Each structure stands twice: as structure tokens, then as C-alpha cells.
Design the sequence.
């Protein structure tokens, strides 16, 4: 495959091996550091494996973010969304506002609500049960992708119950899938810098394992490009891989590049923030080589990357574009390059332009829906 390419012998050996088996942590660390002519063979290998594992379908979902509050006690150094309770911009949506957001999304064809918010100090399991019952009562056929491991853990503590009971109760009233958020980078060194008030690595793993054990699948994420090292990125993916081998509960893996422009750590003077374009592509490709078919769906976040770079990332091992994302106030606060809402037609056009097949899906990747011919990608 690489006979006529100017590629180093070590990279060639690793990529040749990756065609048949997952690469090791040591091999992944080598690939994260490659430069020059080794890059394109890596991307081509990841794209080849993507084709072998999931074919030429590119999936996405028609969804809507319902951010029910921006009040947050955690206040991570990378987040421009959370507010203190006494901040004039702080809010908590009431039931009528939540239903109105849901109704508008359903009228536009939404199949999923992403129910998220800050870690509110008074939120307990009963409150989250109420939100789920509210939405499922009005929109029983719409899946809910909701909360985060940190939010559920803190709500269980507030209600005096263990996490298994908490997740069971949430599942019983309509929680379909769990977002992989709060993972950020799964090394305690980095977490102590960017999110010291959030769950530790061990606590995050415990929460996710518990959710999977009670029958709530969900996504896995990585948020990179801040204070972590390249080796810590690989360590994070390896933790996700090991956890998936144990629980088989992850539906997708979502790398999310850090948008730093409005983040507290950037505004306080932290330098060297943000990943380069080649680092983005290497992370997608290495993720495919490490995860292969154990997590077959690797998502590129167009809201983080912009439409054009997301399309390029679809040639580096990824096969999912996420969602239409109406109302993603978290990404909007961070400075999303192409806004925070896309039509099905735009995503459809991105995929068809690559000669691949656009497929709408549900939250669990268990149901798929045909897409009518779309429109051209926007010029800006």
C-alpha cells in the first residue's frame, strides 16, 4: 500500500500492522508526533479502515440542544458558558420555556433532545426526573440524550442515593443515552489545571460504567488542545478503549477541539492554547486506528471545526457529523466558527460532495432514515 510513498520505515510498519489489528499506546504516540510526508499515509490508512468497518455512509441526527440553566458551581477553566447564580446573565428555564423549545424542534423534525445545563447547586435526581417526564410527556417519540456524569453524580449525592439507583430512575422516566461530556482529558494532572472541581478520572469512569450497567448507552468524548500533552491524548483514548471492551456501552467517540478564544484560562493569560489543523486530523486518524470497530462510529463536530474542515475530517477516519444542534449555547459561548445550527440540507450536501451516502440516524445508531437530495454548501 505504501511502496511508492516517501514514508519512514517505522510509520510504515505501524500503518501496515493497523490494517489487521489495533495499534498500541506506544505506536499511537509515535503517530501523534509524525510530520511531513508521513501524515498523508496515516490519513489514508484511517480512511481505508473507516471504509472497511462502516462503509461509505455518513450519519447525523436532527436534534436540538435544550440548555435548561447556565448556573454552574463547577466553573471549569475552559468554559465560557457557566455563570454564578447572582450573575445578571444567569438563567433557569421554566417548564413552559422548555416545552416551547422542544415543540419548535419537533416541528423541524427533531429526533433527539440534548438536555444539558450547568451543574446547578440545587439540582437533585428529582429535578432531573421532572425534566425528563416533562419532555417525554409532551414528545414521547423523541429520544433524550441528557445530563453528564458529573451532573448525575452530584444529583445522586444531593438526593442521598447511589449512582446505580440514580441512573435507574432516570432511565425509567425517559433518559435514552448519556453524553460523554465531563470527560475532557482523562488524566488527573490536566484535570487539576482545567477542571479541579469536576469529577476525577476514577469518578468519571465509575459513573459511565454504572450508566452502561443499568442499560443507558452513550457517547465518549475527548476535549483536547488546552494544557494536555500528546501522550495524554493517547492515554485518554486508551482509557475509552479499555472501558468499551468491558461494557460495550459507547455508541460513538467524539473528539472536540478546544475553542479557547473566550475561555477563562485564555483570558487569564494562558498561552499555547488550541490544536493545529494537522493535530486535529492526526487525532481523528489515530482514534480510528486505536478503536477500529470496537467503537465503529467516530464523530467530527462541525460546530467545533466549521463546515469545510469537518468535511476534510471525514477523509481522516470519521463517519458521523453529529447533529443539527439547534440551540447549542455552550459552543456558541465559545465562538463556534460556523454558528451552532445546521440544516439537514447542509449536512447532506457536505456528504454528497465527498461521494458518500448521507444517512439520518437516531441517538443509539439503531434506526436510520433516508435523506432526500439536498442543496449546495453555503459559500461562507
Sequence:
Amino acid at each position: 500500500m505504501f511502496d511508492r510513498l516517501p514514508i519512514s520505515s517505522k510509520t510504515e510498519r505501524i500503518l501496515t500492522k493497523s490494517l489487521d489489528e489495533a495499534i498500541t499506546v506506544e505506536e499511537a504516540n509515535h503517530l501523534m508526533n509524525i510530520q511531513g510526508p508521513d501524515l498523508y499515509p496515516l490519513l489514508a490508512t484511517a480512511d481505508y479502515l473507516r471504509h472497511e468497518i462502516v462503509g461509505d455512509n455518513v450519519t447525523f441526527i436532527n436534534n436540538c440542544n435544550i440548555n435548561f440553566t447556565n448556573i454552574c458551581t463547577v466553573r471549569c477553566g475552559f468554559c465560557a458558558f457557566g455563570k454564578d447564580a447572582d450573575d445578571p446573565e444567569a438563567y433557569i428555564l421554566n417548564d413552559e420555556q422548555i416545552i416551547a423549545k422542544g415543540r419548535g424542534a419537533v416541528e423541524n423534525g427533531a429526533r433527539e433532545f440534548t438536555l444539558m445545563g450547568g451543574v446547578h447547586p440545587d439540582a437533585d435526581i428529582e429535578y432531573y426526573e421532572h425534566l425528563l417526564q416533562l419532555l417525554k410527556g409532551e414528545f414521547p417519540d423523541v429520544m433524550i440524550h441528557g445530563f453528564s456524569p458529573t451532573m448525575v453524580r452530584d444529583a445522586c449525592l444531593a438526593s442521598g442515593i447511589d449512582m446505580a439507583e440514580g441512573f435507574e430512575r432516570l432511565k425509567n422516566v425517559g433518559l435514552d443515552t448519556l453524553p460523554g461530556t465531563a470527560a475532557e482529558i482523562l488524566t488527573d494532572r490536566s484535570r487539576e489545571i482545567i477542571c479541579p472541581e469536576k469529577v476525577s478520572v476514577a469518578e468519571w469512569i465509575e459513573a459511565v460504567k454504572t450508566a452502561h450497567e443499568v442499560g443507558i448507552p452513550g457517547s465518549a468524548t475527548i476535549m483536547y488542545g488546552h494544557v494536555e500533552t500528546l501522550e495524554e491524548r493517547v492515554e485518554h483514548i486508551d482509557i475509552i478503549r479499555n472501558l468499551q471492551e468491558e461494557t460495550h456501552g459507547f455508541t460513538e467517540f467524539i473528539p472536540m477541539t478546544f475553542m479557547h478564544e473566550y475561555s477563562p484560562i485564555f483570558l487569564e493569560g494562558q498561552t499555547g492554547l488550541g490544536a493545529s489543523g494537522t493535530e486535529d486530523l492526526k487525532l481523528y486518524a489515530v482514534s480510528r486506528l486505536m478503536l477500529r470497530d470496537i467503537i465503529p462510529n467516530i464523530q467530527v463536530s462541525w460546530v467545533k471545526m466549521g463546515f469545510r474542515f469537518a468535511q476534510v475530517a471525514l477523509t481522516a477516519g470519521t463517519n458521523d457529523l453529529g447533529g443539527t444542534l439547534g440551540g447549542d449555547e455552550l459552543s456558541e459561548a465559545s465562538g463556534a466558527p460556523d454558528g451552532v445550527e445546521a440544516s439537514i440540507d447542509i449536512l447532506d450536501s457536505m456528504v454528497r460532495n465527498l461521494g458518500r451516502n448521507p444517512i439520518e440516524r437516531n441517538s443509539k445508531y439503531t434506526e436510520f432514515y433516508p435523506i432526500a437530495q439536498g442543496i449546495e454548501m453555503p459559500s461562507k
About this structure: Confidence is low (pLDDT under 50) at residues 331-336, 374-380. The longest strand covers residues 250-257. The longest helix spans residues 230-247. Residues 101 and 191 are 33 Å apart (CA to CA).
